[in-house]
Amino acid sequence: MSSFEEAETEETITCLHVTLYHPCQEEKQVFQHLNFHRREKRRADEVAKFGRDRNICYYNLMDSRVSRVQFTLQFFRQLNSSEFGFEIKNMSKKTKLIVDNVELDYLNKIDLPRKCIIRFGDYQFLMLRQDGESVDYFETCLELAQASLLQERHLPSLQPIPECGNSSFYSQGVKPIEIDENDL
Where is the FHA domain (predicted)? Predict the structure, then answer.
């Protein structure tokens, strides 16, 4: 028997592909401390933290409007299954986290779908899980989007909607007029 035949079988590792977008990413350099286009191996028991505090968060966002820890991702294995996934938890007391169309308040958590968009403030993250077999590690791979991810998925933006319920007035340049209820 050759050494090739006796070698251990290499396990595949679950990888979370994350595409990030912020409308001012060029001017503000909010993603300057992130490593793009590289798979980074993390231990399965590590909690992946996204936020502005470099001492706590491995995925650092350089923006004073981002919470010290904005959200966390926890790698786990489904009960009675060999399938792995990620759980996302909102860690911001001030900002809701939107996972596709589900709003998470502070300390709310859900299982991350295989493919979804996460939004808070002006930030958009497209998450796509690539399955693997390893129980000891997971990987992340970050990419930078050049255009809004919402346009690709046709999701509503977080723009305020006027009380009349029709946001097309803004796109046509019509400014809303505030009227005191006593003037009606």
Answer: 49-121
CATH number at residue 104: 2.60.200.20
Domain, as residue range, for 108: 11-154
Q: What is the DSSP-derived secondary structure letter of residue 181?
A: G
Q: What is the DSSP letter of 151?
A: H
**Taking the complete model, does pTM exceed 0.85, yes or no?**
no
pLDDT of residue 161: 44
Domain count, the chain: 1
What six digits make up the tokens of 92? 């911001």
Report the alpha-carbon distance of residue 163 to residue 109 in Å, rounded: 31
For the stretch 159-172, pLDDT in tens is 444 444 444 444 44
Beta partners for residue 99, in sequence order: 102, 118
